[in-house]
Fold this protein.
Amino acid sequence: MTDKKRFKIQFKKYLVRCVACALEPTVFNKQVFVLVGEGQNTGKSTFCRWLCPTELNDYFTEYVSQDKDGLIALSSNFLINLDELATLSKVEINALKSFISKDKISVRLPYAKRSTTQPRRANFIGSTNNDEFLVDETGNVRWQCFEVAGIINFAYMKDININDIWRQAYTLYKSGFQYQLTAEELKENEKANSKHLISSSEIELIDKYFQSASRNEGEFKTATDILDFLALRHPAIKLNDRKIGKAMKILGFEKISNYTAEKKHSVKGYFVIAKT
């Protein structure tokens, strides 16, 4: 792992969330734990499968459709492995995001006479060989991404009993361990996820021409000002101010209100310095 400290903390929390999600009707695991690493045969998928104890194989699946059967899978499985996220389209990723956000399922089970409401039990884990796979510039709080450096050492399969891992997670759950992400960890997660967003023209061009600055050092520009600046230099590229605002947020530019003498009222924008 490229960030072992963060991985250790968040993997522990993820495992305890899995236990809570499986046992408590009012708790569901909001995050998909994702291993990211270029190249095949590095051990990512094997690790995801190893996490499910043999005794729970009937409650593990690697495919979930976004229909009635998929809804049933959310309430009847312990782990759902999204084996290759890079193969999904932007539309499919956004649809999946909505699907994994469900905390309960209303569906008519096979042979049942009417629909019933079932608690969400399933937890999601995934892997991808594609470094850029996230598509939502407004936020990817549902994903927890961790970069795998090189090939995972398969010795863990022999040295570690997976049942002991889940015993420890269950003990932490019973002890009142705080398994949800804190506000600071959510911010940290968004920052880590930004590296895995599918690049846009707006992100690439803003990063090329501007850097964030303080009020005293920088020049104030609105999203429209930045759009005009970029469009003048790259007229063949189609840009829009809505995506400019999203790109500025992703790149860490702070949006503030600033009074302008020209307009005689405050407008929202950013203090920036042009890169040389």
